[in-house]
Specification:
heterodimer; A: 240 residues; alpha/beta; Rossmann fold; six-stranded mixed beta sheet; three-stranded antiparallel beta sheet; 8 helices; globular; B: 230 residues; mainly alpha; MetI-like fold
Chain lengths: 240, 230
Protein backbone atom coordinates (compact mmCIF):
# COMPACT_ATOMS: atom_id res chain seq x y z
CA UNK A 1 0.00 0.00 0.00
CA UNK A 2 0.95 3.61 -0.42
CA UNK A 3 3.44 5.13 2.00
CA UNK A 4 2.24 8.32 3.64
CA UNK A 5 5.48 10.25 3.10
CA UNK A 6 5.83 12.51 0.06
CA UNK A 7 8.45 11.94 -2.66
CA UNK A 8 8.86 15.70 -3.07
CA UNK A 9 11.14 17.51 -3.14
CA UNK A 10 13.13 15.33 -5.50
CA UNK A 11 16.77 16.25 -4.93
CA UNK A 12 20.01 15.57 -6.80
CA UNK A 13 23.07 16.11 -4.65
CA UNK A 14 26.21 16.38 -6.79
CA UNK A 15 25.07 13.48 -8.97
CA UNK A 16 27.34 12.06 -11.64
CA UNK A 17 26.58 9.12 -13.89
CA UNK A 18 29.27 7.42 -15.92
CA UNK A 19 29.30 4.42 -18.23
CA UNK A 20 32.84 3.23 -18.80
CA UNK A 21 34.84 6.27 -19.82
CA UNK A 22 31.75 8.25 -20.87
CA UNK A 23 30.31 10.83 -18.53
CA UNK A 24 26.55 10.93 -18.98
CA UNK A 25 25.74 13.32 -16.14
CA UNK A 26 28.36 15.55 -14.56
CA UNK A 27 27.92 16.74 -10.94
CA UNK A 28 24.28 17.74 -11.19
CA UNK A 29 22.73 19.60 -8.26
CA UNK A 30 19.00 20.00 -8.61
CA UNK A 31 15.91 20.26 -6.47
CA UNK A 32 12.48 19.67 -8.00
CA UNK A 33 9.58 20.76 -5.82
CA UNK A 34 5.81 20.62 -6.19
CA UNK A 35 3.98 22.94 -8.57
CA UNK A 36 3.75 23.52 -12.30
CA UNK A 37 5.51 21.10 -14.69
CA UNK A 38 9.30 21.00 -14.78
CA UNK A 39 10.67 20.58 -18.29
CA UNK A 40 14.08 19.03 -18.85
CA UNK A 41 15.45 20.75 -21.90
CA UNK A 42 18.54 20.13 -23.98
CA UNK A 43 19.86 18.78 -27.26
CA UNK A 44 20.01 15.05 -28.03
CA UNK A 45 22.53 13.22 -25.89
CA UNK A 46 22.50 15.87 -23.18
CA UNK A 47 21.48 13.35 -20.52
CA UNK A 48 17.72 14.01 -20.30
CA UNK A 49 16.70 10.37 -20.39
CA UNK A 50 19.38 9.40 -17.86
CA UNK A 51 18.21 12.18 -15.57
CA UNK A 52 14.65 10.83 -15.74
CA UNK A 53 15.82 7.27 -15.06
CA UNK A 54 17.63 8.54 -11.97
CA UNK A 55 14.48 10.43 -10.94
CA UNK A 56 12.54 7.18 -11.21
CA UNK A 57 15.17 5.23 -9.29
CA UNK A 58 15.90 2.93 -12.23
CA UNK A 59 19.57 3.87 -12.21
CA UNK A 60 22.01 4.47 -9.38
CA UNK A 61 24.25 7.52 -9.53
CA UNK A 62 27.94 6.73 -9.95
CA UNK A 63 28.71 9.41 -7.36
CA UNK A 64 26.43 11.71 -5.38
CA UNK A 65 22.94 10.91 -4.20
CA UNK A 66 19.31 11.19 -5.28
CA UNK A 67 16.64 11.56 -2.61
CA UNK A 68 12.86 11.70 -2.61
CA UNK A 69 11.32 13.80 0.16
CA UNK A 70 14.62 13.45 2.02
CA UNK A 71 14.64 9.64 1.72
CA UNK A 72 17.30 7.88 -0.35
CA UNK A 73 15.46 4.54 -0.42
CA UNK A 74 11.97 5.58 -1.54
CA UNK A 75 10.37 2.77 -3.59
CA UNK A 76 8.65 3.45 -6.93
CA UNK A 77 5.10 3.44 -5.49
CA UNK A 78 4.51 7.18 -5.76
CA UNK A 79 6.20 7.67 -9.12
CA UNK A 80 5.49 6.64 -12.69
CA UNK A 81 7.52 6.98 -15.87
CA UNK A 82 6.52 7.12 -19.51
CA UNK A 83 9.43 5.96 -21.67
CA UNK A 84 10.03 7.40 -25.09
CA UNK A 85 9.36 3.95 -26.53
CA UNK A 86 6.89 2.50 -24.03
CA UNK A 87 6.81 -1.24 -23.56
CA UNK A 88 3.48 -2.78 -24.48
CA UNK A 89 2.66 -5.99 -22.67
CA UNK A 90 1.51 -8.71 -25.07
CA UNK A 91 -2.09 -8.24 -24.04
CA UNK A 92 -5.06 -6.13 -24.99
CA UNK A 93 -5.00 -2.36 -24.47
CA UNK A 94 -7.41 -2.70 -21.55
CA UNK A 95 -5.33 -5.49 -19.99
CA UNK A 96 -2.25 -3.25 -20.13
CA UNK A 97 -4.01 -0.57 -18.10
CA UNK A 98 -5.51 -3.14 -15.72
CA UNK A 99 -2.05 -4.60 -15.15
CA UNK A 100 -0.70 -1.22 -14.08
CA UNK A 101 -3.70 -0.73 -11.80
CA UNK A 102 -3.18 -4.15 -10.20
CA UNK A 103 0.48 -3.36 -9.55
CA UNK A 104 -0.50 -0.05 -7.97
CA UNK A 105 -2.77 -1.92 -5.54
CA UNK A 106 -6.13 -1.02 -7.09
CA UNK A 107 -8.69 -3.53 -5.75
CA UNK A 108 -9.86 -6.11 -8.28
CA UNK A 109 -13.51 -4.97 -8.11
CA UNK A 110 -12.64 -1.42 -9.19
CA UNK A 111 -10.21 -2.24 -11.97
CA UNK A 112 -12.66 -2.65 -14.83
CA UNK A 113 -14.33 0.68 -14.18
CA UNK A 114 -11.01 2.50 -13.60
CA UNK A 115 -9.62 0.95 -16.80
CA UNK A 116 -12.60 2.24 -18.77
CA UNK A 117 -12.19 5.72 -17.27
CA UNK A 118 -8.47 5.83 -18.07
CA UNK A 119 -8.93 4.59 -21.64
CA UNK A 120 -11.65 7.18 -22.11
CA UNK A 121 -9.35 9.89 -20.76
CA UNK A 122 -6.71 9.12 -23.41
CA UNK A 123 -9.30 8.57 -26.15
CA UNK A 124 -8.72 4.84 -26.62
CA UNK A 125 -12.07 3.44 -25.48
CA UNK A 126 -12.85 2.12 -28.94
CA UNK A 127 -9.59 0.15 -29.03
CA UNK A 128 -9.86 -1.40 -25.56
CA UNK A 129 -9.86 -5.01 -26.75
CA UNK A 130 -7.23 -4.51 -29.48
CA UNK A 131 -3.82 -6.17 -28.84
CA UNK A 132 -1.66 -3.34 -27.49
CA UNK A 133 1.26 -4.14 -29.76
CA UNK A 134 -0.93 -3.68 -32.85
CA UNK A 135 -1.70 -0.07 -31.95
CA UNK A 136 0.03 2.79 -33.78
CA UNK A 137 2.97 4.59 -32.16
CA UNK A 138 0.82 7.48 -31.00
CA UNK A 139 -1.85 5.17 -29.64
CA UNK A 140 0.77 3.17 -27.74
CA UNK A 141 2.10 6.41 -26.27
CA UNK A 142 -1.39 7.34 -25.05
CA UNK A 143 -2.00 3.84 -23.72
CA UNK A 144 1.25 3.98 -21.75
CA UNK A 145 0.16 7.37 -20.44
CA UNK A 146 -3.13 5.86 -19.25
CA UNK A 147 -1.21 3.02 -17.60
CA UNK A 148 1.10 5.49 -15.85
CA UNK A 149 -1.77 7.74 -14.73
CA UNK A 150 -3.51 4.68 -13.32
CA UNK A 151 -0.77 4.51 -10.70
CA UNK A 152 -1.99 7.92 -9.46
CA UNK A 153 1.61 9.04 -9.15
CA UNK A 154 2.76 11.98 -7.11
CA UNK A 155 5.54 12.47 -9.67
CA UNK A 156 4.98 11.62 -13.34
CA UNK A 157 8.17 11.42 -15.40
CA UNK A 158 7.75 11.75 -19.16
CA UNK A 159 10.47 11.20 -21.75
CA UNK A 160 9.60 13.26 -24.83
CA UNK A 161 6.04 11.91 -24.93
CA UNK A 162 5.15 13.92 -28.02
CA UNK A 163 8.39 13.49 -29.99
CA UNK A 164 6.81 11.40 -32.74
CA UNK A 165 3.31 12.86 -32.71
CA UNK A 166 1.63 15.24 -35.14
CA UNK A 167 0.30 18.60 -33.83
CA UNK A 168 -3.23 17.35 -33.16
CA UNK A 169 -2.02 14.33 -31.22
CA UNK A 170 0.53 16.49 -29.41
CA UNK A 171 -2.17 18.89 -28.28
CA UNK A 172 -4.29 15.97 -27.10
CA UNK A 173 -1.44 14.49 -25.04
CA UNK A 174 -0.43 17.89 -23.65
CA UNK A 175 -3.99 18.47 -22.46
CA UNK A 176 -3.95 15.16 -20.59
CA UNK A 177 -0.62 16.12 -19.02
CA UNK A 178 -1.84 19.59 -18.02
CA UNK A 179 -4.98 18.03 -16.62
CA UNK A 180 -2.86 15.70 -14.46
CA UNK A 181 -0.72 18.65 -13.35
CA UNK A 182 -3.82 20.62 -12.34
CA UNK A 183 -5.04 17.73 -10.23
CA UNK A 184 -1.79 17.80 -8.25
CA UNK A 185 0.59 15.45 -10.07
CA UNK A 186 4.10 16.82 -10.37
CA UNK A 187 5.12 16.57 -14.03
CA UNK A 188 8.80 16.20 -14.93
CA UNK A 189 9.13 16.03 -18.67
CA UNK A 190 12.02 15.81 -21.09
CA UNK A 191 11.63 17.85 -24.26
CA UNK A 192 13.64 19.63 -26.87
CA UNK A 193 10.76 21.75 -28.04
CA UNK A 194 10.69 25.40 -26.99
CA UNK A 195 7.03 25.70 -27.91
CA UNK A 196 6.28 23.01 -25.38
CA UNK A 197 8.14 25.03 -22.74
CA UNK A 198 5.88 28.01 -23.44
CA UNK A 199 2.74 25.89 -23.32
CA UNK A 200 3.49 23.74 -20.29
CA UNK A 201 6.49 24.67 -18.20
CA UNK A 202 6.60 26.19 -14.74
CA UNK A 203 10.35 25.85 -14.61
CA UNK A 204 13.08 24.62 -16.92
CA UNK A 205 16.13 22.46 -16.31
CA UNK A 206 18.61 23.01 -19.13
CA UNK A 207 21.25 20.36 -19.80
CA UNK A 208 24.08 20.27 -22.31
CA UNK A 209 26.36 17.23 -22.51
CA UNK A 210 25.46 16.03 -19.05
CA UNK A 211 25.96 19.34 -17.28
CA UNK A 212 23.25 21.45 -15.72
CA UNK A 213 23.49 24.94 -17.20
CA UNK A 214 20.32 26.47 -15.89
CA UNK A 215 17.41 25.80 -13.62
CA UNK A 216 15.03 28.73 -13.85
CA UNK A 217 11.39 29.73 -14.09
CA UNK A 218 10.18 29.18 -17.65
CA UNK A 219 9.59 32.87 -18.34
CA UNK A 220 13.07 33.79 -17.08
CA UNK A 221 14.66 31.03 -19.13
CA UNK A 222 12.89 32.15 -22.29
CA UNK A 223 13.30 35.94 -21.81
CA UNK A 224 16.56 36.25 -19.90
CA UNK A 225 18.69 33.12 -20.34
CA UNK A 226 21.69 33.39 -18.02
CA UNK A 227 24.20 31.34 -19.99
CA UNK A 228 25.34 31.72 -23.60
CA UNK A 229 24.37 28.08 -24.27
CA UNK A 230 20.81 28.68 -23.08
CA UNK A 231 20.63 31.93 -25.01
CA UNK A 232 21.72 30.11 -28.16
CA UNK A 233 19.19 27.34 -27.56
CA UNK A 234 16.37 29.86 -27.05
CA UNK A 235 17.39 31.73 -30.22
CA UNK A 236 17.11 28.46 -32.08
CA UNK A 237 20.83 28.14 -32.81
CA UNK A 238 22.32 24.68 -32.79
CA UNK A 239 23.79 23.93 -29.39
CA UNK A 240 26.40 21.16 -29.55
CA UNK B 1 4.63 -52.97 -49.78
CA UNK B 2 2.60 -55.83 -48.27
CA UNK B 3 3.69 -54.70 -44.77
CA UNK B 4 2.19 -51.28 -45.34
CA UNK B 5 -1.11 -52.71 -46.49
CA UNK B 6 -1.29 -54.96 -43.45
CA UNK B 7 -0.44 -52.03 -41.20
CA UNK B 8 -3.40 -50.05 -42.55
CA UNK B 9 -5.63 -53.07 -42.11
CA UNK B 10 -4.54 -53.34 -38.49
CA UNK B 11 -5.37 -49.69 -37.85
CA UNK B 12 -8.65 -49.88 -39.76
CA UNK B 13 -9.80 -52.97 -37.88
CA UNK B 14 -9.46 -51.12 -34.57
CA UNK B 15 -7.26 -53.75 -32.94
CA UNK B 16 -7.79 -53.57 -29.15
CA UNK B 17 -4.18 -54.37 -28.19
CA UNK B 18 -2.94 -51.73 -30.55
CA UNK B 19 -5.15 -49.03 -29.09
CA UNK B 20 -4.22 -49.97 -25.54
CA UNK B 21 -0.58 -49.44 -26.51
CA UNK B 22 -1.37 -46.08 -28.14
CA UNK B 23 -3.34 -44.98 -25.09
CA UNK B 24 -0.53 -45.86 -22.67
CA UNK B 25 2.08 -44.13 -24.81
CA UNK B 26 0.07 -40.92 -24.94
CA UNK B 27 -0.74 -41.04 -21.24
CA UNK B 28 2.91 -41.51 -20.27
CA UNK B 29 4.32 -38.85 -22.61
CA UNK B 30 1.64 -36.24 -21.87
CA UNK B 31 1.97 -36.77 -18.11
CA UNK B 32 5.75 -36.45 -18.37
CA UNK B 33 5.43 -33.21 -20.36
CA UNK B 34 2.87 -31.85 -17.86
CA UNK B 35 5.23 -32.49 -14.94
CA UNK B 36 8.18 -31.04 -16.85
CA UNK B 37 6.11 -27.91 -17.60
CA UNK B 38 5.11 -27.39 -13.97
CA UNK B 39 8.75 -27.59 -12.88
CA UNK B 40 10.53 -26.33 -16.00
CA UNK B 41 8.59 -23.12 -16.72
CA UNK B 42 9.24 -21.42 -13.36
CA UNK B 43 12.75 -22.89 -13.23
CA UNK B 44 13.66 -21.52 -16.66
CA UNK B 45 12.08 -18.15 -15.91
CA UNK B 46 13.88 -17.80 -12.59
CA UNK B 47 17.17 -18.70 -14.23
CA UNK B 48 16.49 -16.00 -16.82
CA UNK B 49 15.99 -13.33 -14.14
CA UNK B 50 18.53 -14.33 -11.51
CA UNK B 51 22.17 -13.32 -11.49
CA UNK B 52 24.50 -15.39 -9.34
CA UNK B 53 28.07 -16.69 -9.53
CA UNK B 54 28.30 -19.74 -11.77
CA UNK B 55 25.13 -18.86 -13.64
CA UNK B 56 26.78 -19.28 -17.03
CA UNK B 57 27.86 -22.80 -16.07
CA UNK B 58 24.30 -23.66 -15.06
CA UNK B 59 22.98 -22.33 -18.38
CA UNK B 60 25.56 -24.32 -20.37
CA UNK B 61 24.80 -27.52 -18.43
CA UNK B 62 21.06 -27.02 -18.86
CA UNK B 63 21.45 -26.43 -22.61
CA UNK B 64 23.69 -29.48 -22.83
CA UNK B 65 21.13 -31.62 -21.01
CA UNK B 66 18.68 -30.99 -23.84
CA UNK B 67 20.66 -33.68 -25.62
CA UNK B 68 20.71 -36.06 -22.67
CA UNK B 69 20.94 -39.66 -23.98
CA UNK B 70 17.63 -41.39 -23.12
CA UNK B 71 19.34 -44.68 -22.21
CA UNK B 72 21.50 -42.86 -19.63
CA UNK B 73 18.43 -41.22 -18.06
CA UNK B 74 16.74 -44.62 -18.13
CA UNK B 75 19.71 -46.25 -16.46
CA UNK B 76 19.89 -43.58 -13.75
CA UNK B 77 16.19 -43.86 -12.94
CA UNK B 78 16.53 -47.65 -13.07
CA UNK B 79 19.29 -47.54 -10.45
CA UNK B 80 17.25 -45.18 -8.27
CA UNK B 81 14.11 -47.30 -8.43
CA UNK B 82 15.58 -50.81 -8.46
CA UNK B 83 14.96 -53.01 -5.39
CA UNK B 84 18.38 -52.21 -3.91
CA UNK B 85 18.29 -48.55 -4.96
CA UNK B 86 17.50 -45.58 -2.68
CA UNK B 87 13.88 -45.43 -3.86
CA UNK B 88 13.47 -49.20 -4.24
CA UNK B 89 10.97 -49.32 -1.36
CA UNK B 90 8.39 -47.59 -3.54
CA UNK B 91 8.24 -50.56 -5.89
CA UNK B 92 7.90 -48.33 -8.92
CA UNK B 93 10.30 -50.03 -11.31
CA UNK B 94 8.59 -51.53 -14.38
CA UNK B 95 5.43 -49.46 -13.87
CA UNK B 96 3.99 -46.65 -16.01
CA UNK B 97 4.82 -44.28 -13.13
CA UNK B 98 8.51 -45.08 -13.52
CA UNK B 99 8.21 -44.31 -17.23
CA UNK B 100 6.58 -40.97 -16.49
CA UNK B 101 9.35 -40.06 -14.03
CA UNK B 102 12.10 -40.99 -16.49
CA UNK B 103 10.51 -39.12 -19.40
CA UNK B 104 9.83 -36.08 -17.22
CA UNK B 105 13.56 -35.96 -16.38
CA UNK B 106 14.37 -36.26 -20.05
CA UNK B 107 11.99 -33.46 -21.09
CA UNK B 108 12.65 -31.10 -18.17
CA UNK B 109 15.95 -29.69 -19.50
CA UNK B 110 14.35 -29.03 -22.90
CA UNK B 111 11.43 -27.08 -21.39
CA UNK B 112 13.62 -25.26 -18.86
CA UNK B 113 16.36 -24.31 -21.35
CA UNK B 114 13.95 -23.07 -24.04
CA UNK B 115 11.94 -21.19 -21.41
CA UNK B 116 15.12 -19.58 -20.06
CA UNK B 117 16.06 -18.31 -23.53
CA UNK B 118 12.57 -17.05 -24.39
CA UNK B 119 12.00 -15.33 -21.05
CA UNK B 120 15.45 -13.77 -21.00
CA UNK B 121 14.84 -12.16 -24.39
CA UNK B 122 11.53 -10.76 -23.22
CA UNK B 123 13.04 -9.62 -19.90
CA UNK B 124 15.47 -7.38 -21.79
CA UNK B 125 12.45 -5.60 -23.20
CA UNK B 126 10.27 -5.59 -20.06
CA UNK B 127 12.86 -5.02 -17.37
CA UNK B 128 12.65 -1.26 -16.88
CA UNK B 129 8.91 -1.05 -17.31
CA UNK B 130 8.23 -3.79 -14.74
CA UNK B 131 10.80 -2.34 -12.33
CA UNK B 132 9.18 1.07 -12.67
CA UNK B 133 5.78 -0.47 -11.92
CA UNK B 134 7.24 -2.00 -8.77
CA UNK B 135 6.58 -5.61 -9.85
CA UNK B 136 8.19 -8.12 -7.45
CA UNK B 137 10.18 -11.22 -8.49
CA UNK B 138 7.19 -13.61 -8.40
CA UNK B 139 5.11 -11.14 -10.41
CA UNK B 140 7.93 -10.72 -12.91
CA UNK B 141 8.16 -14.48 -13.48
CA UNK B 142 4.38 -14.78 -13.87
CA UNK B 143 4.19 -11.79 -16.24
CA UNK B 144 7.07 -12.94 -18.41
CA UNK B 145 5.76 -16.51 -18.65
CA UNK B 146 2.29 -15.30 -19.54
CA UNK B 147 3.52 -12.80 -22.12
CA UNK B 148 5.80 -15.34 -23.80
CA UNK B 149 3.09 -18.01 -23.84
CA UNK B 150 2.97 -18.19 -27.64
CA UNK B 151 6.70 -18.81 -27.95
CA UNK B 152 6.59 -21.30 -25.09
CA UNK B 153 4.22 -23.50 -27.10
CA UNK B 154 7.29 -24.37 -29.16
CA UNK B 155 9.12 -25.52 -26.02
CA UNK B 156 6.13 -27.64 -25.10
CA UNK B 157 6.06 -29.26 -28.54
CA UNK B 158 9.79 -29.91 -28.50
CA UNK B 159 9.37 -31.60 -25.14
CA UNK B 160 6.42 -33.69 -26.29
CA UNK B 161 8.18 -34.71 -29.49
CA UNK B 162 11.15 -35.86 -27.48
CA UNK B 163 9.02 -37.87 -25.05
CA UNK B 164 6.77 -39.46 -27.64
CA UNK B 165 9.59 -40.51 -29.93
CA UNK B 166 12.10 -41.95 -27.48
CA UNK B 167 12.47 -45.63 -26.73
CA UNK B 168 15.54 -45.87 -24.46
CA UNK B 169 14.18 -44.74 -21.09
CA UNK B 170 10.77 -46.40 -21.30
CA UNK B 171 12.38 -49.66 -22.38
CA UNK B 172 14.76 -49.68 -19.42
CA UNK B 173 12.49 -48.47 -16.59
CA UNK B 174 9.23 -49.83 -18.03
CA UNK B 175 10.53 -53.22 -19.05
CA UNK B 176 8.22 -53.45 -22.11
CA UNK B 177 5.75 -55.67 -20.25
CA UNK B 178 2.91 -56.78 -22.51
CA UNK B 179 -0.35 -55.04 -21.63
CA UNK B 180 1.19 -53.02 -18.81
CA UNK B 181 4.23 -50.95 -19.82
CA UNK B 182 4.39 -51.61 -23.54
CA UNK B 183 4.41 -48.34 -25.55
CA UNK B 184 4.39 -47.60 -29.25
CA UNK B 185 8.13 -47.16 -29.50
CA UNK B 186 9.05 -50.23 -27.44
CA UNK B 187 6.55 -52.30 -29.41
CA UNK B 188 8.00 -51.11 -32.69
CA UNK B 189 11.49 -52.11 -31.50
CA UNK B 190 10.27 -55.49 -30.27
CA UNK B 191 8.07 -56.37 -33.23
CA UNK B 192 10.75 -55.35 -35.69
CA UNK B 193 13.26 -57.69 -34.07
CA UNK B 194 10.62 -60.46 -34.09
CA UNK B 195 10.03 -59.86 -37.76
CA UNK B 196 6.40 -58.77 -37.23
CA UNK B 197 6.72 -55.82 -39.54
CA UNK B 198 2.99 -55.03 -40.13
CA UNK B 199 2.38 -54.19 -36.46
CA UNK B 200 5.66 -52.26 -36.23
CA UNK B 201 4.77 -50.28 -39.33
CA UNK B 202 1.20 -49.66 -38.21
CA UNK B 203 2.39 -48.28 -34.90
CA UNK B 204 5.02 -46.18 -36.61
CA UNK B 205 2.38 -44.57 -38.81
CA UNK B 206 0.08 -43.92 -35.86
CA UNK B 207 2.95 -42.39 -33.89
CA UNK B 208 3.86 -40.00 -36.67
CA UNK B 209 0.20 -39.14 -37.22
CA UNK B 210 -0.34 -38.37 -33.53
CA UNK B 211 2.75 -36.18 -33.31
CA UNK B 212 1.60 -34.24 -36.39
CA UNK B 213 -1.91 -33.95 -34.98
CA UNK B 214 -0.72 -32.54 -31.66
CA UNK B 215 1.62 -30.11 -33.42
CA UNK B 216 -1.19 -28.95 -35.71
CA UNK B 217 -3.51 -28.46 -32.75
CA UNK B 218 -0.89 -26.46 -30.86
CA UNK B 219 -0.20 -24.34 -33.93
CA UNK B 220 -3.90 -23.67 -34.37
CA UNK B 221 -4.33 -22.63 -30.75
CA UNK B 222 -1.31 -20.36 -31.05
CA UNK B 223 -2.61 -18.65 -34.20
CA UNK B 224 -6.07 -18.22 -32.74
CA UNK B 225 -4.91 -16.75 -29.45
CA UNK B 226 -2.29 -14.55 -31.12
CA UNK B 227 -5.07 -12.99 -33.17
CA UNK B 228 -6.82 -12.11 -29.97
CA UNK B 229 -3.96 -10.98 -27.76
CA UNK B 230 -1.10 -9.93 -30.04
Amino acid sequence: MRAAASDLPLAFDDVSLTAGATTILDRVNLTIGPGAPTLILGPNGSGKTSLLRLCMGLAEPSTGAVSWGGRADAGPERRAILFQKPVMLRRSAAANVAYGLAQAGCPRGLRTRRTEELLDRVGLSALASRPARRLSGGEQQRLALARALGRQPEILLLDEPTASLDPAATRFVEEIILDAARSGTKIVMASHDLGQVRRLAGDVVFLVRGRLFEHAAASDFLDRPATPQAAAFVRGDLVL
Amino acid sequence: MSETVSAWQLIASGDATLFAIVRLSLAVSLSAVAIALVVGLPLGAMLALMRFPGRSAVVVVLNGFMGLPPVVVGLTVYLLLSRSGPLGELGLLFTPTAMVIAQALLVLPIIAALTRQTVEDLWLEYREELTAMGVGPAGQVATLLWDSRFSLVTALLAGFGRAAAEVGTVMIVGGNIDGFTRTMTTTIALETSKGNLPLAMGLGLILIFLILLINAAAWGVRLWSEQRAG
